[in-house]
Amino acid sequence: MSQQECAKRRRAVMDRIGPHGVAIVPSAPHRLRNHDVHYPYRQDSDFQYLTGFPEPEALAVLAPGRPEGQYILFCRDRDPERETWEGRRAGQAGAQENFGADQALPISQLDEWMPKILNGREQVHHSLGQQSWLDKKLIGWLTTLRGQSRRGVRAPPEVVSLDPVLHEMRLFKSDVEIGYMQHASDISAAAHRRAMQACKPGVTEYQLAAEIHHEYERNGLTWAYGSIVGGGSNACILHYVENADVLKDGDLVLIDAGGEWQGYCADITRTFPVNGRYTSTQKAVYEVVLAAQLAAIDMCQIGRHWNQPHEAAVRVLTEGLVTLGLLKGEPAELVEKEAYRRFYMHSTGHWLGMDVHDVGAYKLNDQWRVFEPGMVLTVEPGLYITPADDIDERFWNIGIRIEDDVLITAEGPRILTSQAPKQIAEIEALMRA
Description:
Blueprint: H1 3-17, E1 21-26, E2 32-34, E3 37-38, H2 45-51, E4 59-62, E5 71-75, H3 80-86, H4 91-99, E6 103-106, H5 110-118, E7 123-125, H6 132-146, E8 158-160, H7 163-171, H8 175-198, H9 205-218, E9 222-223, E10 228-231, E11 252-257, E12 259-261, E13 264-265, E14 268-273, H10 280-298, H11 308-324, H12 331-337, E15 363-364, E16 367-368, E17 376-379, E18 382-385, E19 398-401, E20 404-407, E21 414-415, H13 424-432
Parallel strand pairs: 1-7, 5-6, 7-8
Antiparallel strand pairs: 1-4, 2-3, 4-5, 9-12, 10-11, 11-14, 12-13, 15-16, 17-20, 18-19, 20-21
Helix pairs in contact: 5-6, 8-9, 8-13, 10-11, 11-12
């Protein structure tokens, strides 16, 4: 991650909290998988955004105007013995030389230094409730300062959440961030193409997942979230994660998978036939979902609001469901009654960035947020048709979702994930190749 970007972000945070504030952001802890085995480490997104520092057991403190240094990074000491077992550490020297800290201090000395840093500040900007150890520490530091008030020591009278400041910043992507997301999208699209070409009856869902993950890792990416590979009826389970079944001739397979590069995510869903050819019924349903997605993407324009892509998708899906005979009545009335929710039960997108479901408000002052340049969202309508007595058997167990990542620009929506084919002819041609 670019240290120039991180420095620019830290300056922006300090400008927003003002000269009397101090911000505290912790790293992510290690997570135990089982016994003495940990999950692969993934840094906390807020901490990564501000520091680029890849280690656990660290704390970033931003103290505008502090003479000894405005950006203080607490981190682990160098320890040759532990590094032999667990890998290299930056230490305090590395934190300053390689990660831009004005002052780097041992994490073991938090209790010694933090009351000094907090003394005389008006607000502590810290997101309570995320890491209980730090909440307890903060209460202890404030209590220590309040106990010394007769000596002229002054504890900050306010603790306010840093989320509104930091998450509003993260919502708007810089050119560097967009470059990271584009790279993640390109490799993720290649992974989807690879899965399409590897697919045939008798292949398992986990084998297709392996093809996707291989494409990530040979290009230096990790996965942004656990891949969903659902064939047949499994495609109607929105967050299907078992990936355990054999793919059958005549079924569709839905793959929702995206990679992560430099902490930035892609999120793509494609649905295609196991044998490489859509049936006429599958094709009819697919074309409805694709039309809904294109209508929703067309609403991703500066000045439109957050819910307009969803509204557009719902209108097209409902009209399509009537045409297919799965709903009966006037489309406008069916939309008002939310009759479509039997087959389409989720929203049409979410913010995307360092987190798959990224931070940022969807409403401001109880009004849907208006799109502005630099925002990135997913657009992902779908239809999920489970067996029922009042549904023609031809439609049973058809689950289709089509998802792309869209950047809001002055020139209109830019689809970051356009390298993943979604037109029926494109998909069938690729699977024949």
